[in-house]
Amino acid sequence: MINVRSFFRTPDGEFVAVDEFDGALDDLDYIEGAIELEVDGKPMLGKAEWDYVDELWFYISDMVREMRSTGEAMTDFPDQPITLSFRRIDRVGRVRISCDFGVSHERRDAVVREEELLDALRRSGSLFFEKMAILAPGHSKGYADAVERLQG
Predict the structure, then answer these.
(1) Is the pTM of this model over 0.85?
(2) Residue 47 sits in a domain of what CATH number?
(3) What is the mean pLDDT of residues 41-53?
């Protein structure tokens, strides 16, 4: 099972789930937060890997599109030495997820069904961008475009 959740990071360093957030964002140019990605109970990404969460979701929406067309995709986090990659490993629809943490040289890997991964990213990413369209309506076109990339 794949679980994906998004969080905003508050000025005091707390994390609030996007679907529970009811405040205002302090700075729309630098939206701090985290994406939790868990595969069969194994954390791949978590709150410790917080970054500019809106930019990261834009990157992931591009990854989803690229994954569908080429079978692999990779992105670096906006402001951390972390690389996230997806690579199709066989013809029965399995994908290797890899998270490389540059400073610590740690690597986390998991193998999942491609459609399960893409479905989880579509759901969570769409929820994130729908919330962002409410919080920053001036950018709603960009958020709608990202949802379209996720949905394919």
Answers:
(1) yes
(2) 3.30.2450
(3) 97
